[in-house]
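Side project, low priority. Logging it here so it doesn't get lost.
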Amino acid sequence: MKKVKEYLNTNVLTKITIALAVLLTLVALFLVITHNAPISGDKNDTTDTCKTVVVVSNGDTLSGLLSKQGLSHSQINEIARVLKSNGINGLRADRDKIEFVRTNDESPVNKIVVIPSPWRQVELTCTDGANWQCNTVDIERDTRAVYKSGVILDGDSFYLAGMRAGIPAAILADVYDLLAFEMDFERDVRAGQKFSVLYEENFSSGAKVDNGHVLAVSFDALRGNVKMYRFKKKDGSVGYYDEKGNGAIKSLKRTPINNAKVTSSFTTRRKHPVLGFTRAHKGVDFRAATGTPIPAAGAGRVIKRGYNSGHGNFIRIRHNGSFETLYAHMSKFKSGVNVGTTVKQGQIIGFAGSTGLSTGPHLHYEIIKDGKHVNPLTVKLPAINNLDDASKTKFLEYRRALDDGIEYLRTHPQMFIVL
């Protein structure tokens, strides 16, 4: 039977196979199991007699922690040297853990395990009291694809509906960032709209550690159903694509600030709230408290940064030969962002405010296409990272198989896919 390799996660590229077959075969190939299935084989089992686990706190230093365990100055220097050569240059409060192992309560420390992440640990062992040997261990992840779906109720925001559906906040933030290329969450969200997300959960020794990537997302937007799939190309690059394999991530975002309410739309005629007469409003205003970070809507180069009586503090970015964006009424600019600075999409360029002709703190956002102002909420934006013909063929094969898996999970909500 033909199988399709998983192109989503660099860590599981060769592990997942998705069958193009009937549902019973699909169940077998996906290894669908219940959330409560027992997992055997604890890789962290140890026969050591005495272990002390320390979670690094504010003010802790490696030297101080080692000294408290009775290690000498020369041993501390040697351990620090070995750790540095293995990529451990410092300790992070409330994140890193250190295990100290002894044969018994009275013996010196003969093993130290530094745990900088749930998926990696650095083990140091010593048998002669002086020379420390180092071994880096990568913890294998038990990665599962989980499907969640929901519906927008009257008065809901997407965030509230997503939380009610059981989708983690961090995953919702990622989904928001993806859909913001296609949707305006202030105007496009209506009661009755359905949405779904397929995302990764990472487990170790049977316990969930964190969430992984968003694998697929669907949203019944006003302009039609929006679908995006995460796909890894042959060259190792990863992107999101629509059902036809076209790049889903656009060069610019319609709404730079997440969850911001639109307070004034793009129009050719609007009575200006300060000047009192009617004139064109060449952008979209988003409500934002003073100091709210403003990210660049797309990658580009800052071509203007300054102050004028209308826009107040503003920045203008050129993205390519056709598109520019403008951000106005800033309270201040981000340090290091000047004329000529190259910025990445999502990079903070300044902070919301109420400078210039403004009645309150907000972001005024403009998109200029070929020298003319266009409506950021409706303009057709160019996609980036499109697939070549060979990759598109593989993507379409993969997408059809993944859709079969999603359909099975949709009808079996307590199941998940082991990747």
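Brief comment: The chain has three domains: 50-138, 142-249+386-418, 262-374.
Revisit when time allows.
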